[in-house]
Amino acid sequence: MSEDLIINESKIFTDPSLFGVVNAIRAVKYLVFHHTGCQNPDRAIGMYQQYGVSAHYLIDQKGVIFRLVIDNNIAYHAGVSNWRGVESLNQNSIGIELLSPNPHQDGFSDDQIKSLITLCQELISTYNIFPQNIVGHSDIAYDLNTRYLNRKQDPSHLFPWARLAKAGIGLFPDQISIKQPDSILFKIGDRNPDIIKVRDVLAKIGYHVKQAVDKYDEGLAKAIRCFNRHYNPELFVKDPDKSEAENYSLPLSGAAFQLWSSSLQKLNDLMQTIATNHNNSSNQIIFEPIIPKLHSQNPKSDYHPALIFAVSAAGLLLVVLLACFLWKSYNKTTNSVTPYENLSKITADRSKPISAIAAK
Predict the structure, then answer these.
(1) Three-state SS letters, 106-169
(2) Residue 346, CA distances (Å) to 76, 152, 225, 335, 341 in order
(3) For residues 219, 222, 226 and 228, what is the CA-based torsion angle, rounded to 10 degrees?
(4) How many CA atoms lie within 13 A of 347 on its CB side?
(5) Which residue, 172, 207, 229, sits at the end of a domain?
(6) How does pLDDT run across 299-345, given as a tens digit for each residue?
(7) How many angstroms separate the Cα of 25 from the Cα of each of 54, 89, 127?
(8) pLDDT tens digits, 68-108
(9) Is 97 a catalytic residue?
(10) Are 3 and 45 part of one and the same domain?
(11) pLDDT of 332
(12) Alpha-carbon dihedral sign for residues 264, 265, 267, 268
């Protein structure tokens, strides 16, 4: 253990209903971060006991690290969860709670984050945890009935993911290449083939979303909200997250429920970061960027169907006229073939009418 890491063992849980005992060596693959909305460790522990939940570690605002459950036992912190296709992350994860009386407004203290970094570096070294498996509760928690994400909001949009990534903990885009004003790409109800690509990339990163669906529906909107909370927290300045602490069943409204151009760019930048810097053979994610400009970044500005039809019709007419001209020219030079045979030689397709050939 690192000399800088000091763990207070005075509050370790002894009630067996609050954790699962594992006799064999447990395979730890994930770190999951949480927040608890209070500042007193004993009060927080009382809340955990009341609701029958637990975590492996608790860090107060002074930076004191309390061990609540030993690493090899299962703490009940993740609940119904999924990450990268793996269900029920309690089995193979370590849960870390951070205390903050106002996590959606004030975030976390510098002492807390310093202690968290030290603790995480020790855990990553001990269990060889991959950076893409270090997540927030919000990233993994989904509703059992709807199977939608956004069941939880911790560790809030004020959690310093970028700072942790610089310390080798988790992933955050190495650089953000946004070069233009932010704009909304999709809202609830929009349909577009590019939405399938967004779903595929979110799933590759690890988010629990349906794939092969071209609609921006409630499930995708909630997944985008979770992604924005982690990787695009600036949107929550426009749409404050503090109200989430009061009501976990908010209606789908607000900036963070929409897909913004900045969200798409950060999604691409994150995939590039994974592909270039964290390409362990067993955890590599192939980087295939989503097209950088989705229909002028405004689905309402796409070409009108009438215009598309007019252009297509004009092209078809041009092809027909060209075919007629070639047929007449060729027919003047030979009398040994019929006009239909002549046309068939030009088009090289006897089985299809001119309209079908032109449409090709």
Answers:
(1) CCCCHHHHHHHHHHHHHHHHHHCCCHHHEEEHHHHEECCCCCCECCCCCCCCCCCHHHHHHCCC
(2) 73, 65, 56, 16, 9
(3) 120
(4) 25
(5) 172
(6) 333 334 454 456 566 666 676 677 776 666 655 554 444 333 333 33
(7) 20, 16, 11
(8) 999 999 999 999 999 999 999 999 999 999 999 999 888 99
(9) yes
(10) yes
(11) 56
(12) positive
Q: Last residue of a domain, which of 269, 302, 335?
A: 302
Residues 321 and 355: their CA atoms lie apart, in Å, by 11
**Residues 215 and 135 both lie in one domain:** no
Q: Are residues 162 and 88 in the same domain?
A: yes
Domain that holds residue 123: 1-172
The yes-or-no verdict on residue 45 having pLDDT over 90 is yes
The residue annotated as part of the active site, out of 87, 97, 244, 288, is 97
Are residues 197 and 161 part of one domain? no
Residue with tokens 């006799």: 23
65 and 8 Cβ atoms separated by less than 8 Å = yes
Q: Which residue has the tokens 């959606």?
A: 104
Which tokens sit at 174?
């190495």
| pTM of the model as a whole | 0.77
